[in-house]
Amino acid sequence: MFTPKPIGFVHSPFKDAAAIPKGLGAKHPEEGVLEILPAFAAGLTDIEGFSHLIVLWVFDRIEVSDGFDLMVTPPTDSRPHGLFTTRSPRRPNPIALTVVELLRREGALLHVRGVDMLDGTPILDIKPYLSNIPEEKLRRGWLAEAETRKG
Length: 151
Ligand SMILES: C[S@@+](CC[C@H](N)C(=O)[O-])C[C@H]1O[C@@H](n2cnc3c(N)ncnc32)[C@H](O)[C@@H]1O
Fold this sequence. Notes:
single chain; six-stranded antiparallel beta barrel; binds S-adenosylmethionine
């Protein structure tokens, strides 16, 4: 279909997947830097006006994301759920999505809060985060039930 090419790389405090917070209520306050390659830097024009960004990136560490199962038991629950209802790193196409808060831009460096990726992770794309779905319309599927069970 197409050969993905990184537009940049993540500088993250996480060198080890085990250190990244997981499970119910996990928070991601860690700051990192998205370094965009010079060839793509002009595409950041006007980005300062957006508070949050969607970052599409690659689960490139094979030791974390090798293969996949269609039913998975996520760290948020003790019950198995369909892969496509989870954020498991083990998927047919190892593509990840993280919403980060843009703190500031320094040329081709985007300082952000909310990283959950390992240091050196390749970035595929960046888009502004614009949610227009009213909260009352959002359903949280099995996660809501798991949260109720855990109290
Ligand atoms: C649960 S996934 C969620 C990622 C993203 N927010 C999403 O929803 O697609 C986050 C986990 O991916 C793993 N991870 C982070 N960076 C990775 C990388 N470069 N390659 C493979 N796995 C990675 C870590 O184990 C981390 O806890």
